Amino acid sequence: MDKDRFEHRLIAQKLVYLLKLKGVEFVYPFRLYVRGPYSPNLAREYYQHGDEFSRCETESTLSPAEADAVAGLTGLFDKSPSLLEIGATYGYLAYEMRQPPEQAYRMVRRMKSFYSNEQIVKGVNRAKKYLFVPTDEEKAALDAELQEWQRAGIRSMRH
Amino acid sequence: MPDDLIAIVEESEDVNSALISRVRLEILWALSELGEDGATARQLKAGLNLSDGVLYANLKKLVEMGYLRSEKVTLEGKELDLYAITPEGLAEWRRVRGWLCKLLGCEGDTCER
């Protein structure tokens, strides 16, 4: 990562924000700006510690759960700046401001209107996939539905 | 009438009246906490809900006044215009904000953002 590259600074801001939403602990407070979720404190860090930033070095070590959160995020977003910008903005609106999903989606479309509808849908869906944690009732409902499908599958194999 | 009439009138002489426009204040406000990172023109346009004409006319004026700097950056292969607030712009923004707060009778010298 190069602190002198706009693209890299954007990726760093959105990766850290999405990891924070996922539960990884960071000391950087984020607020919503025209760029989407952004932390001036994090920006100060990468400007002041450009060398460590370029080598992606830190004194901290990740716990297995945190390493999973990182792997899941990079696997889903593949460090795409546009998808990260869209996904992080949706995450802020839906998970931090607790806007209903439809309202959050409409707001992302307005705030990030310079991206295509396809990119917006992709970014929002990836954020949902990354951040969604089903409740116990949702898990039970899902299990019940899957059992129905499983039973139907077994029945069809018998015929 | 607020008690600090004299201070408001005296401080108004230090405020750049060319800055007292809704769009210019919104742009400076939006960029005031983004430091060197700034924001691209398209982020400002969509985020502040401005038309191209209004946005670019005001950005140009703010750059001429020395309150913003602009540079070209690349994102996913596209060249974009990035704008960031200068130290002069930040000082002027704080001066205007303090003066407006005083004028509106907010608590202290400045409002919470």
Can you walk me through this structure?
The complex is a heterodimer of chains A (159) and B (113). With 159 residues, chain A is mostly helical. Chain A is 70% helix and 4% strand. The mean pLDDT of chain A is 90. Chain B has a single domain (5-104), classed as Arc Repressor Mutant, subunit A, CATH 1.10.10.10. In chain B, 51% of the residues lie in helices and 16% in strands. Chain B contains five helices and three strands; from the N terminus they run ααβααββα. Chain B has a three-stranded antiparallel beta sheet with strand order 1-3-2. In chain B, a hairpin with a 2-residue loop joins β2 and β3. Chain A binds chain B through residues 6-7, 9-10, 31, 33-35, 38, 40, 43-44, 47, 80-82, 110-114, and chain B through 30, 33-37, 39, 42-49, 73-76, 80, 82.
Gist of the model:
The complex is a heterodimer of chains A (159) and B (113). By secondary structure, chain A is mainly alpha-helical. In chain A, 70% of the residues lie in helices and 4% in strands.
Which structural traits does this protein have?
heterodimer, A: 159 residues, two-stranded antiparallel ribbon, B: 113 residues, alpha+beta, Arc Repressor Mutant, subunit A
